[in-house]
Structure formats: C-alpha cells, structure tokens
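Late entry, written up from scratch paper. The run itself happened at the end of the previous shift, but nothing got recorded in the book at the time, so transcribing now.
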Amino acid sequence: MTTAIITKFHGPTGTRGARVSASWGSDRAVAEYDSTDGLGEPAHRKAAEAVLRKTGCPQLIGRLVGGALPDGRFVFVVAP
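Output as recorded:
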C-alpha cells in the first residue's frame, strides 16, 4: 500500500521564519521556506524530500510525484 506524504506551509511567527512541514505516517520533517521557490510545488517538494531522508529512504526522492490540494497543502506519492 502506498502512503502519501502531506505537506503544509506555515507562515512566520515572532520566533520562527516561514517553513513547510511534511508528514509521512508518523514521521515528520520541516524545511525552511525559501521565498525564491514561491508557495508552489518546489517549496513543498523540499519538505517531502526531507522526510524521506529522515526516514532513511533517500532512494525514493527521484520517484516522488505530487500535486496541490484545494486547501493549499500538497500531497506526494512514490511512483512505481
């Protein structure tokens, strides 16, 4: 069964800069937001790749396929 990686943008606060979080099952990673990426897929892909590295699955990075959800989050799955 394929599990999706869900990413979400978090705006800056008084103590932290903007960031994008990624959740894959019970694993989570956060990537700092780079404004040159805009709010689109590249910013969210970085967070999805970070969670794969954190879980010891960097070999799957090249197989990520993703897209936007209506609420602004992104979803990524590993293509076969």
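Strands lie at 5-10, 19-24, 27-32, 64-68, 74-78.
(Scratch paper discarded after transcription.)
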